[in-house]
Fold each of these.
Amino acid sequence: MSLHFTSERHADQQRADDQRADDQPADDQPADEGVLERAFTLGEIPGILWTPASASATEPAPLILLGHPPLGLATMYPRLAARAHAAAADGFASATIELPGSGARPRWAALEEARAALRRVMHAGEPVGDEIVDALVLPLVDRAVPEWQAAMDALLALPEIGGPVGYSGGVISIGVRLAAIDPRITAAVLFAGSFVPRSIVEEARQITIPLHVLLQWDDEGNDRQAALELFDAFGSKEKSLNANMGGHTGVPEFAGEGAAGFLARHLK
């Protein structure tokens, strides 16, 4: 698949846009000059690439793949951009792509049916069975992982982008599959908080790269015990679990800083 850039803007332009939207002085905006944000398409897949000012053909930046839940890039953009700008401050390029069946991509009937089944079960207060988890997660993993690999192919061909490559975020099953099968992924920060099929737990045993897992202890939509069993299954000799009190979106700032430090240690 071919990579085509469709737009670009620098951090100072973004701050000016935010200032107009928020009616705030420019001095109140974060000081992250030099970050270049470029929207792209990979075939029909939308994505975004952020690169620091230091990235060049002579000094290519390591790459972090930013995983996210299937809520659409437009919805996830503020959090993804914040993560990308923080990574750029550490000298990393970051990229993300729209997941199958999400955002501006065509609807996916099977995925919609699986989500509807999940809602019915949860509304009834019934346990979520393996059949629903498999239908919800495995087809998404099967489609998304090859697309992430195609994105890596295209992004690593850019002169200003180089290895090593890290993965950071969710859906955790996508991160597990990528880390298990693609040797270009040399370290991963995995966000617990989504359902994990039993077959993905078995794939986790194949992983040997360094891992850092973030777990929100009181995440109402997450099976905590399943997340702990997944962590236990990882075959990595270096793996850490950062568990914090709070719900799904309550990750404390210091936990993010710890994850950034992990990636800095392993990708530079």
Note: The two ends are 29 Å apart (CA to CA).
Amino acid sequence: MSCISLAAATMLTACASDASNASLSPAERQLRQRNAHFNTTVLEGAVVGGLLGAGIGMLAGHNATSAALGGVSGLAAGTGLAYAVASRTQAQQQTEDTYQKAITEAQQSVATATEDAAGSQAIADQANTELSSLDAQYKAHQIDKAQYANAVQKYNKDATALNGLAQKYAQQAQQMQTYATYRGNDAQMAANAAAMKQKADTLKSNEERLVANLSQVPSDVSGQAPAA
């Protein structure tokens, strides 16, 4: 099995595990699976694209520098998104059909991010309520340390997923803005870039809220919870 396939299989296994985890809310399940899907597709696309680009660069320039530059172009192409271009020339030479595809893909990406931003709000709100309740129950000796620690572990994993999605959507927002600039400050793509950045900021804000709540967990409990 190749390194790429092994990594993808590992992520898919984690995704399947989350799908069967009855303790997860619909929002938690959706965001964890989305993050796992992003990690799988971006890893495979970027590695394949990077290797292809590096190979083309080596053939064109016959040296390691050309290979490295080709690899950068390949990484952008490897994402498979029409708005993820590697250069101004590439953006300007796109056909009208490819341009429309880029706009459609950007709109779809923003729609997905909108769903995830709403989910991140639900998770942060849920964590605030549940962790507060668990803390009170723990201090009243109504639950034991292991029960509290299990919830902490779950929310640690949620925080990791939220952070990962926030970073990925921020990257997509930057790709959209770069594309808009390359296309002469294209208004449609610039609007999508602004909307995507807003969703990424919402995810990051909710991840920070979640982490702040987790920081209030007693150290004897948080120290027992397995790493996310």
Note: The CA atoms of residues 54 and 150 lie 45 Å apart.
Amino acid sequence: MGPGPDSSFSTARKEAGSASDTVQRYARAEHWHQVSPGRHRRGSRLDVHYPYLSRRIASTRGGISLTALHSELAERGRQGSYSTLRDWARRCLHQPRRTPHKPSALPTARLATGWLTRRPSSLSEDEHR
């Protein structure tokens, strides 16, 4: 008697380290995205407003606030929350986050001790600062 139909699932399950129902879902699906939610981009209700939003952002060189955009969309008849617009902007506008400048590195304890214990006349100009 040859291997049963479940033997390939059990082999795949062992190799993948997944539950048998997960392996069976992948085996029965025609495309991977049918069983892998969240890995493909879903549309947004704001996608239909993208041309308008991108024109407004470009015309103000990015100087328009999301609050103003939300108000303008409301005037155009869109009923939606500010948080939806904020999340859409984070996801779709691809603006790099502004990171504050790192402060200069503090001197090491050994270096500070050297400054404090040496004669001021033996310090270089940079060490006087």
Note: The chain has a mean pLDDT of 77.
